[in-house]
Amino acid sequence: MKNILIISGHPDLGTSVANATILNEVARALPEAEIRRLDSLYPDYRFDIAAEQNALRRADVIVFQFPFSWYSVPGLLKLRLDEVFLHGFAHGSTAELGGKKLLLSFTTGAPAAAYQKDGFFKHTIDDFLPPFATLATLCNLDFVAPIYTCGISYVGREDTAAINTQKDQARDHAARLIAKIREIAA
């Protein structure tokens, strides 16, 4: 299996049900994968650029795991992109990331019905993905269709049944993610 790098962009996994469950399931199923939990590595949001670039260099498959935040990535992951995906490293004539696969794995708080042309947001999930596809194009990465799960929100966190439902949804998400990683890393 190729080298797998999973970058967790959740700003506080300690408060997460779904993203924490997904990462734990993936770590159990793919112990060879490198999982970089940005919230614990960089609680002060000061990245070790060399370490982050070296992790990307080693990877054949790059997974961004995150909660959909304001129709994109959380600030922690966005800042990492800004500071690590530099010209000359991630893109440009001396870029080093070409040929790697990029897979997005994310959860949304709103239900799937909200992400329809006639839904609350008036846009589908696919409508929000062009910036990611463009990042992949710029960096010569192979953009893989994302794995996502809608309807995992903070509502009902005090309700044990709701938490268990979210964990079940997260385990299902993790199973789909693991299968996709195995497929593209073969």
From TrEMBL:
GO terms for molecular function: oxidoreductase activity. InterPro entries: Flavodoxin_fold, Flavoprotein-like_sf, KefG/KefF. The keyword Hydrolase does not apply. It holds the Pfam family Flavodoxin_2. This is NAD(P)H-dependent oxidoreductase. The keyword Oxidoreductase applies. Residues 2-173 form the Flavodoxin-like fold domain. It comes from Dentiradicibacter hellwigii. Its EC number is 1.-.-.-. It comes from the Bacteria. Keywords: Oxidoreductase.
